[in-house]
């Protein structure tokens, strides 16, 4: 068992707690097991998405062919005005909005307001579903109108399609799974079924997953669409 | 504001609604700013610096407040946030590898196909490198 003296070179209390927790032979993470497991899953998912993004960086850096200009590829003409990247911007705002409603839901659940929490989770799921809908629109536009394929496209480097479909497809899959996950959570909140007296932990854990999906989009937005 | 007191994590976390609303607003502002970087065609190093700065700010806010990492114990924070730093090594290695591949391709493919410098110049323009 670690025993920290008061003159520990590690300094702050938080670091002493860290050493004590990790060397305690017993529970290292003083959180509900579900939360620890969700974080573990999210760390592993971080590596998956990071590998995709690193692979994208590698193919984009190594090709001597010009990379298609995302700003133009994803532009939409609305009311006669061509707006660069506008659909992606809207999708970003929708996802951030859903993160906000999710945070509100987690708070409501922690305060024991089950109905409010349930409705907010439903709203979050609805925003998530609309995100997936816009992504489906974006995919069909790229496939049908722009002729983007995973193995090539008329705009430049053929790797563009492979990176685009892999990265946004995998992210969209996460959003879709998240929508189903949230629907289950909402139903359980609204019908007073199981998970009644967990102090809102189930909702908080679902929130971790949902915020992570938003977090991944932040990186995709920056590296794929804006770069 | 009790938002800064570390929680034991035994129960669902409760924080003032103001913290969430502030972060929510900030995320909107930062997203708008990063969109404007593209809208006004900011280029070169400034573009990348702004994009990365806004990205890291947004990621930090989401993890710290929305995902409650700000209030978790250090043991969990270290377990979650430290391992992904290995990815920077992977990114560095792959970047070096990709540069090498591109130079090789420029020498053996682009030059030999009679369009010497063409692809490389395109690339330079396209990426504002």
Rg from alpha-carbon coordinates of chain B = 22 Å
Major sheet size, sense and barrel closure of chain B: none
Which fold name is given in CATH as the topology of the largest domain in chain A? Four Helix Bundle (Hemerythrin (Met), subunit A)
Oligomer: heterodimer
Give the chain pair forming the largest contact, with residue counts: A-B, 72 and 68 residues
Number of separate helices of chain B: 5
Unreliably modeled segments of chain A: none
Class by alpha and beta content of chain A: mainly alpha
* The number of domains of chain A: 2
Give a quick set of tags describing it.
heterodimer; A: 227 residues; Four Helix Bundle (Hemerythrin (Met), subunit A); 2 domains; two-stranded antiparallel sheet; 3% strand; globular; B: 129 residues; mainly alpha; flat; disordered N terminus; disordered C terminus
Explained architecture:
The complex is a heterodimer of chains A (227) and B (129). With 227 residues, chain A is mainly α. Chain A has two domains: 1-30, no CATH class; 32-226, Four Helix Bundle (Hemerythrin (Met), subunit A). In chain A, 70% of the residues lie in helices and 3% in strands. Chain A has helices at residues 13-22, 33-62, 70-73, 86-110, 114-145, 159-190, 201-226, and strands at residues 76-78, 81-83. In chain A, strands 1-2 form a two-stranded antiparallel ribbon. In chain A, β1 (76-78) and β2 form a beta hairpin. In chain A, α4 (86-110) packs antiparallel against α5 and α6 (159-190) packs antiparallel against α7. The mean pLDDT of chain A is 89. Chain B is mainly α. At the A-B interface, α1, α2, α4 and α7 of A face α1, α2, α3, α4 and α5 of B.
